[in-house]
Amino acid sequence: MLRSALLTLAAVAAWMPGSAALASEDHQAVQWAAACFACHGPEGRSDGGMPSLAGQTADGMYAMLIDFRNGKRNPTVMHHHAKGYTEEQLRRIADILGRRPN
Amino acid sequence: MQRRQFLRHSAALAALAAVPAAARAQVGRGARVVVVGGGFAGAACARYLRLWAPGASVTLVEAAREFVSCPMSNRVIGGTMSIRDLTRRYDGLASRHGVRVINDTVTAIDPATRQITLAGGSALPYDRLVIAPGIAFDYAALPGLNSAAAQERVPHAWKAGPQTHELRRRIGAMPQGGVFAMHIPKAPLRCPPGPYERACLVASALRRSNPTAKVLVFDANPGILAKRELFADAFANRYKGMIEYVPNAGFEAIDAASGELSFDVHGKVRADVWNVIPPQRAGELALQAGLGGGQGWCEVDFLSYESRLVPAVHVIGDAIASAPGTPKSAHMANQQAKVCAAAIAAHFAGRAVNPEPIIANTCYSFVSDKEAIHIAGVYRYDDGQRTIVAVPGAGGLSARASGEEAFMAVAWSFNILNDTLGMI
């Protein structure tokens, strides 16, 4: 029950472009997204090798994550990570990453 | 006040509640967190606590003046990387993130009065204590290596630092056609693929400078602990005739002076250079503080990394009793640090902790000076089992070793250091 309420709210928040970021703090997705910085660098600013996520759009990153999840793009490692998340989780992670300052 | 009650009453709403920047800055106001140990776990936790509980004062106590990364240190032994590349200062944590960094060691922890005592004499009170002491070596289990002199003769090089250099130097000074031998202790140990990577990188270096030398790998375990197929392939093909791998090799005793190691079933083996990686347990401090379970590791709640034995004390990094199937690695330490920091921030804010943390692991290993492989996994908290479990279908091994992954491995090592210490 709580969970479905959360999912609905998250879906609404994700659907409202831009405003979601301003109006709410999806703490759970902030925490999920922080896991990615071990490889992509602090706040997604990479020092080389892994692409920087900082400065990319949420929709662009989401599309790439779905591709990795579906076995496309021939990555070295991202398929192993993207398959660990549901599409809904990736949407919320992309929304968090997409609104980080450059 | 109203806001606080509202947040506390509904975890679901709290996750998405409007939190103006001003309110966010208040999270943890007046609270004191002390983090002991500035490795991949402790340093990252201190930094993320300042991000997620900006009102809290965060103190990091670390004995070393500089951070030396263990990942990639096998490349220093193999002669293709400098330890300077793996060394960082703690300055950024203080100047950019407002962490108070104290260069000292802890002499006592008192959970009753919630304070710790430093060797320098001062006492630090805490509301939440995070302990990240890494590993300690159990030399008592290695007859012949009980004295400091013997330990100097037989380096472990399992904590990056002077011993890393020492091992490198000895391998370089080996006679032509000489023997390098290593012993791997029973799991659990820090960095399960590390010993096999080391064997490959030593062989790779010897092939250049000492092509008739031998690398003997004695493993107390029944088989290669991680990336088995890929390392087995490297030993059998890439280093054919040079690396010899011996499983189920129980350590009996070593004569450090003569370089002769006795095994339970393999008799005596002499080598020009021995590298014995000792059996491991949680760092001394954790055990002194009463945080250790029966096996010498600390049991924690995987939603917050709070000790199952001592309230308000959290343990992260290699010192924990790892969830089944998860390794003791820098990547895991970094991930645990963030879950722990988020749980402490939620506690200060009166929010429920995240009921479903998702964390990942990646360990890159070099199989030669130019090629690397990886193993990855994604793990989520399972309510029923009260532990973290691998997400089915995620994670896996490289199909084969490649130069592209060697490039990514080095990039990973710099990015995770930057993330941990808050640089760039």
Radius of gyration of chain A from the CA trace? Answer: 13 Å
CATH class category of chain A = Mainly Alpha
Which CATH architecture of chain A is right? Orthogonal Bundle
Question: Helix count of chain A, per DSSP?
Answer: 6
Distance linking N and C termini of chain B: 37 Å
CATH topology descriptor of chain A: Cytochrome Bc1 Complex, Chain D, domain 2
- Could you describe the largest sheet of chain A, including whether it forms a barrel? none
What percent of residues of chain A adopt helix (DSSP H or I)? 55-70%
Instruction: Return the domain count of chain A.
Output: 1
Ends of chain A: how far apart?
A: 37 Å
CATH topology of the domain at 138-276 in chain B: FAD/NAD(P)-binding domain
Protein name (chain B): Flavocytochrome C
GO molecular function (chain B): flavin adenine dinucleotide binding; oxidoreductase activity
InterPro entries (chain B): FAD/NAD-bd_sf (IPR036188), FAD/NAD-linked_Rdtase_dimer_sf (IPR016156), FCSD_central (IPR049386), FlavoCytC_S_DH_flav-bd (IPR015323), FlavoCytC_S_DH_flav-bd_sf (IPR037092), SQRD (IPR052541), TAT_signal (IPR006311)
Domain Flavocytochrome c sulphide dehydrogenase flavin-binding (chain B): 355-421
